[in-house]
Amino acid sequence: MLKKDVEGKKGLTNVKLLFYFGNALVPGFARASVRELKDKDDSYLVRKVQEGVERFDDEYVRSGIDWLEVHRGVACKENSFSLVAWFRLGLEEDEFSWGKLKYATPVLLKPGLVFLLPGLEGDGGLNICLDLPDDQVDEFHRLLME
């Protein structure tokens, strides 16, 4: 199964909800069996991904948001890895009554969940937000600097 977080605002229609602001990342999926991955040609697999994208409409997004509210976010299973790219959401471009957002970060981190966040305003950098055990931090830093 291929999981890709999709920008929720793009899938919603008629977003005139009271107190609505911001965006959401809604998980989108393309499914194929191991046999399909091994036996089918690339065009078949591309079609499976396209089918997943086509399912991404207003009803799908609203259903996904409801699911996230009930389950309090997507559970990160042990030994799993999920990479979420917040830097593509354009959060730093949104204008609020107090001005532009200075910084955004997730409230809760879970092992195996990695967020890519925009760097400081205008620096073109990237911040990585993750939960690592203390004994792995030095190795992670070394790998990043190579």
From TrEMBL:
GO molecular function: acyltransferase activity, transferring groups other than amino-acyl groups
Similarity comment: family membership: Belongs to the plant acyltransferase family.
Protein name: Uncharacterized protein
Alphabetical list of Pfam families matching this protein: Transferase
Native source species: Salix brachista
Domain of life: Eukaryota
PANTHER family xref list: OMEGA-HYDROXYPALMITATE O-FERULOYL TRANSFERASE-LIKE ISOFORM X1 (PTHR31642:SF217), TRICHOTHECENE 3-O-ACETYLTRANSFERASE (PTHR31642)
InterPro entries: CAT-like_dom_sf, Plant_Fungal_Acyltransferase
